[in-house]
């Protein structure tokens, strides 16, 4: 069972300002929730394999295939700066020169 002191500690950690009435209300509500969750301890799960989800989920991806863009000049022309056939970008690595 949860008590009012624990509710105050959680409220402090969550940066919540609770009135005394809210503390009392949340103590009762959280106690009810924890009592309900405690019922899961009565279920026999000895024959149930551990899992991370209730259903199987698989990521649907497409094969990554290299395809040249037909309008290379259009891409280069949309860049803020270019140098020859390349994008010109700000230098982000510093070397000890």
Describe it:
By secondary structure, the protein is mainly alpha-helical. Helices cover 37% and strands 4% of the residues. The protein has helices spanning 4-13, 20-38, 72-78; strands at 82-83, 86-87. The model has no long low-confidence stretch (mean pLDDT 89).
Write the layout of secondary structure elements.
Elements: H1 4-13, H2 20-38, H3 72-78, E1 82-83, E2 86-87
Antiparallel strand pairs: 1-2
Core attributes:
single chain, 97 residues, mainly alpha, 3 helices, elongated
Q: Extract low-pLDDT stretches.
A: none
Radius of gyration: 29 Å
Order of helices and strands: HHHEE
Q: Spatial order of the strands in the main sheet?
A: 1-2
Mean of residue pLDDT values: 89
**Structural classification:** mainly alpha
- Specify the oligomeric state: single chain
Number of helices, where a helix is a run of at least 4 consecutive DSSP H or I residues: 3
Main sheet record? 2 strands, antiparallel
Q: Helical percent range? A: 25-40%
The number of distinct β-strands equals: 2
Query: Distance between termini?
Result: 65 Å
Shape: elongated
